[in-house]
What we know:
The protein is α+β, with helices and mostly antiparallel strands. It is 33% helix and 43% strand.
Amino acid sequence: MLASRSAPSQLIDSVLSADISIIENLLTESIEASTPSTQPCHDRAHHVSSIDLVGDEAAALVEFTDCTGSSFTDLYVLQKHDKTWMIESKAWDSHAFS
């Protein structure tokens, strides 16, 4: 009986893992496309610090550090349209040095 209960859970985990992977790839492609190599800090490092999924909606936080040591955070809101994840909006915050 435990096996039959875990099967739906495993399927949900598999679908969520696939969606998270797709979202991470979409964010990376978007970040790389929006950072021209002519900018002084085109080699900024980033990592996806969190992704929250609710149905066909997602919110993702991406942390950045550029070549000057400055850090900032982007918040992305994503929505799945016809089985395709799309970035709907982006907000950002720079972390100024005190």
